[in-house]
């Protein structure tokens, strides 16, 4: 069980750090909402640790240690760690799922760029679909088809985030647009980061991301009916709130360079109301055949990990490799600093 004080800390972290999830979580039953708040608080902490820290390799390695401590049953003495450790124990959370998130954050620390849309989906699977799969575990859903649709929703949400943040990411030296799209448009990636421009070509790329996200939002809806009835409004709410960002981008003519796409309180209330109505309709509607569509290739490993329900005790070779690269980077930096100090003295 999550300690009440730790849960309140997580609730406050989400209230201020993730407005969209905070709004949608109000429609979840308490038995799911409370561990979901703990899950999102830990994921929010993980994302901020890497995104906001200058020493990104160091931040990822600290997160690795914190996650190791959680799965060893000895979480660090911090509310998000204790709360996450409680839900890992209560729900037997497969380690492959938070490890996937850690791998995505490690890719961020490497400032990895992606050649194709498939590569962007690989990244989205780790930083977003892994969270969706963990949410399914909290809801007691281990059916492979429902998990595949939850992963569709995660990829759609992350593509929406990427589309919204093209300008902000560029100014931070980050590019999540597929490099082959930039190449086709004759845009140099480094020039894009130096001086991002809301050109027709860039707007077209934003539109392509939004259209791909919309396709996956539509596909994900087939899985909502496979969730417990009490959980459906909250998941529909998250789906509509995030898709609303894409609609806002469309009204801005897909210019995510000059301004940030935002939705307001009243729009969120409207989407939550729509979620309640649609959830009631799913009680009598037959299941869509789309539920049984094959998972995206990039999320198959998440579906397998969550559906089998087998706790994983070791990390994948791919994650071990990227963490070793970051460890070497940390050692090189320390050696460089030591050399600088020696030179000064």
UniProtKB/TrEMBL annotation:
| Requisite cofactors | ATP
What pathway does the UniProt record associate with this protein? Carotenoid biosynthesis; phytoene biosynthesis
> Which GO MF terms are attached to this record?
geranylgeranyl diphosphate synthase activity; squalene synthase [NAD(P)H] activity
Q: Which family does it belong to?
A: Belongs to the phytoene/squalene synthase family.
Matches recorded under InterPro entries: Isoprenoid_synthase_dom_sf, Squ/phyt_synthse, Squalene/phytoene_synthase_CS, Trans_IPPS_bact-type, Trans_IPPS_HH
The protein's superkingdom reads Bacteria
User: Any idea what this protein is called?
Assistant: Phytoene/squalene synthase family protein
Coiled coil, from the record? none
What Pfam families does UniProt report for this protein, alphabetically? SQS_PSY (PF00494)
Biological process GO terms, please? carotenoid biosynthetic process
Spell out the Gene3D superfamilies in the cross-references.
Answer: Farnesyl Diphosphate Synthase (1.10.600.10)
């Amino acid at each position: 069980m999550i300690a009440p004080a730790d849960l309140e800390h997580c609730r406050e972290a989400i209230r201020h750090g993730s407005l969209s999830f905070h709004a949608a979580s109000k429609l979840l039953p308490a038995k799911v909402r409370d561990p979901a708040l703990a899950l999102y608080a830990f994921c929010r902490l993980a994302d901020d640790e890497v995104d906001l820290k200058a020493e990104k390799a160091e931040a990822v390695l600290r997160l690795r240690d914190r996650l190791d401590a959680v799965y060893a049953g000895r979480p660090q003495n911090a509310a998000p760690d204790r709360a996450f450790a409680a839900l890992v124990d209560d729900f037997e959370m497969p380690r492959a799922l938070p490890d996937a998130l850690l791998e995505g954050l490690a890719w961020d620390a490497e400032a990895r760029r992606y050649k194709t849309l498939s590569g962007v989906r690989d990244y989205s699977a780790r930083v977003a679909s892994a969270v969706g799969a963990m949410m399914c575990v909290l809801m007691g859903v281990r059916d492979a088809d429902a998990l595949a649709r939850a992963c569709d929703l995660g990829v759609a949400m992350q593509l929406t985030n990427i589309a919204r943040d093209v300008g902000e990411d560029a100014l931070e030296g980050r590019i999540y647009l597929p490099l082959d799209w930039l190449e086709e448009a004759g845009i140099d990636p480094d020039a894009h980061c130096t001086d991002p421009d809301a050109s027709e070509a860039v707007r077209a790329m934003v539109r392509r991301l939004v259209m791909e996200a919309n396709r996956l939002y539509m596909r994900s809806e087939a899985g909502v009916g496979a969730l417990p009835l009490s959980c459906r409004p909250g998941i529909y709410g998250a789906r509509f709130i995030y898709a609303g960002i894409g609609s806002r981008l469309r009204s801005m003519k897909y210019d995510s360079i000059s301004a940030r796409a935002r939705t307001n309180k009243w729009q969120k209330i409207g989407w939550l109301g729509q979620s309640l109505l649609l959830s009631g309709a799913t009680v009598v509607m037959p299941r869509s055949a789309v539920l049984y569509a094959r998972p995206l290739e990039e999320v198959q490993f998440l579906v397998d990990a969550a559906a089998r329900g087998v706790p994983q005790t070791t990390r994948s070779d791919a994650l071990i490799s990227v963490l070793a690269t970051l460890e070497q980077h940390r050692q090189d930096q320390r050696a460089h600093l030591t050399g600088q100090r020696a030179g000064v003295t």
